[in-house]
């Protein structure tokens, strides 16, 4: 088995174990990760070349996904699912932010990221960073990625985790959407997060 194929297999196994360890509780439809993952925190550059941090996106739910613009299938289909879910949420694009973190920053310039995520809606924002910044972020959320062997034209694939981390408006990790979670359950849980944000605490 090639190293890339082995890594792909390990990623699938790890994702299955993670999803099995945090089954939905109560009316939630996605996998709950309350207390299992740290709050949203990073320092990167957005798709307009501006330095940004997690604090810039407080106040509304944030969906965090790692991918790259040359991805042949998974990235575009995942972002399309998220766009479909957000379209079912009251407030739509104004209510949620999606952060698409490039695991291929050498090819994904800010302009390229902006064109790519812009197809899915104004709530989609591309992020890129230095190797150190990217490595710190993937370690924080236990994400794995690896580069394949370049072909004759210098092109290569990147194997990466496919989960979507969902944070509430305070930046707390709440939910994990897997590759088999379609728009409807994602939308249902986003609505619950938004309703919770609007509900005043009990006196």
Defining traits:
10 strands, alpha+beta, globular, Glutaredoxin, two-stranded antiparallel ribbon, 203 residues, eight-stranded mixed sheet
Walkthrough of the structure:
Helix content is 33%, strand content 20%. By secondary structure, the chain is of the alpha+beta class. It has a single domain (3-198), classed as Glutaredoxin. The protein has an eight-stranded mixed β-sheet, with helices on one face. Helix 3 (110-118) links the parallel strand 5 and strand 6. Helix 2 crosses helix 5. It starts with a helix and ends in a 5-residue tail after the last helix.
- What percentage of residues falls in helices of 4 or more residues? 25-40%
Low-confidence stretches: 1-24, 199-203
Q: What would CATH call the class?
A: Alpha Beta
* CATH fold-level assignment: Glutaredoxin
Shape: globular
Number of strands: 10
**From the 3D coordinates, which CATH architecture would you assign?**
3-Layer(aba) Sandwich
Adjacency order of strands in the biggest sheet: 1-10-9-4-5-6-2-3
Structurally, the number of domains stands at 1
Q: What is the string of helix and strand elements?
A: HEEEEHEHEHEEEEH
What composes the largest sheet? 8 strands, mixed
Mean pLDDT: 87
Structure, briefly:
This protein is an alpha+beta fold and 203 residues long.
Task: Spell out the blueprint of helices and strands.
Blueprint: H1 3-21, E1 31-32, E2 43-46, E3 51-53, E4 62-67, H2 74-86, E5 97-102, H3 110-118, E6 124-128, H4 131-140, E7 145-147, E8 158-160, E9 164-167, E10 173-177, H5 183-198
Parallel strand pairs: 4-5, 5-6
Antiparallel strand pairs: 1-10, 2-3, 2-6, 4-9, 7-8, 9-10
């Amino acid at each position: 088995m090639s190293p890339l194929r082995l890594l792909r297999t390990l990623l699938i196994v790890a994702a299955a174990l993670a999803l099995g360890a945090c089954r939905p509780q109560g009316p939630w439809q996605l996998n709950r990760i309350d207390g299992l993952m740290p709050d949203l925190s990073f320092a990167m550059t957005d798709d307009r070349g501006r330095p940004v941090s997690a604090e810039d996106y407080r106040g509304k739910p944030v969906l965090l996904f790692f991918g790259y613009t040359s991805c042949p299938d998974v990235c575009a289909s995942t972002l399309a699912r998220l766009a479909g879910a957000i379209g079912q949420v009251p407030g739509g694009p104004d209510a949620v932010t999606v952060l698409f973190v490039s695991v291929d920053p050498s090819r994904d310039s800010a302009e390229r990221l902006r064109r790519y995520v812009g197809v899915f809606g104004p709530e989609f924002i591309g992020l890129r960073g230095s190797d150190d910044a990217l490595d710190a972020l993937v370690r924080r959320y236990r994400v794995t990625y690896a580069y394949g062997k370049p072909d004759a034209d210098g092109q290569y694939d990147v194997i990466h985790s496919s989960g979507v981390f969902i944070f509430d408006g305070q930046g707390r990790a709440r939910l994990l959407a897997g590759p088999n979670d379609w728009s409807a359950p994602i939308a249902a849980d986003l609505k619950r997060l938004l309703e919770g944000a609007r509900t005043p605490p009990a006196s």
